[in-house]
Amino acid sequence: MIDLSVNIKGLKLQNPIMPASGTFADGLAEVIDFNRLGAFVTKTFTKEKRAGNPIPRICELDSAMLNAIGIPSKGLEDYIENTVPFYTQYQPPLIASISANTAAEFAILAESLHRVPGIAGIEANISCPNIEANGKAFAIAPETTAQVIKALRNATTLPLWAKLTPNTSDIISVAQAAEAEGCDALVVGNTLLGMSIDIQTRRPNLGNILGGLSGPSIKPVLLRMTYQCFKNVNIPIIGCGGISNTHDTIEYMMAGATAVQVGTATFVNPSTMITIIDELEIWCANHGIKHISELTGSVNDTPFEAYTALS
Ligand SMILES: Cc1cc2nc3c(=O)[nH]c(=O)nc-3n(C[C@H](O)[C@H](O)[C@H](O)COP(=O)(O)O)c2cc1C
Hints:
single chain, alpha/beta, 8-stranded parallel β-sheet, 4-stranded antiparallel β-sheet, 16 strands, TIM Barrel
């Protein structure tokens, strides 16, 4: 028997596979067995209702997709009345992804969730590039990351995950700031800011003009950031970005991820996460691994031999 369970700072998951926020919905329960997942991470919601961005909101590209959904939200009350009861009928823990415009608003939302039975943790989406003014997000800089995580930490004792953005020039400082303010885990990470133009109409392919790039194309960037965060913080890292199969999952775990989130690949094949869970067990058995956590950070990054051809 292979033990696929992982521990995210006290929160035990039966396996390391969970959906990425916004790429998963209730209807998928008709296609896959929800009880097999490591956890649920629901679509980011805000305290108040929000309409989201103008259409078109998604655009398909080579080995990637671009989205500018803009976090349409039915608000906190709807989340508590409908989303929480739906997901708590299943075994995997429910992680609520939240967003807000200010650190204070983030804290108010976290405080409200703290009292809701069935919520196992909070994923603070401090990275969404679609809604912040000038495309900036809290997680662009260590100072604003520290500010929002501090407010959130003061507001709740629930497990707190921070979802970081790759659209920063200093992922290590941002990760360290989140850790220093008491964050329990890092999700690394969200989409890369991108753009696409229809050259016939000369119009951008997204109503918001700019959008978030996801899917296989972004994997090397987010894998690199997962590795850098693993080397520089001591809290668990949940890898996310372009994970489409078991190979990608193992790569992320070797780079330092304790668990992973699968996003765009679920749109391609709704069974992707279940296939990965099944195949992970087989891969571990074939490689003499008894506990999946043995993979975390196991990349052999000892220096390569120097290039000596010219000497
Ligand atoms: C259509 C769509 C909607 C998304 N909505 C959210 C969201 O509400 N909150 C969030 O934190 N990330 C959201 N994301 C980002 C994903 O959770 C994930 O971080 C990103 O897509 C990278 O993973 P992937 O390459 O596996 O898709 C969304 C992504 C897509 C494609």
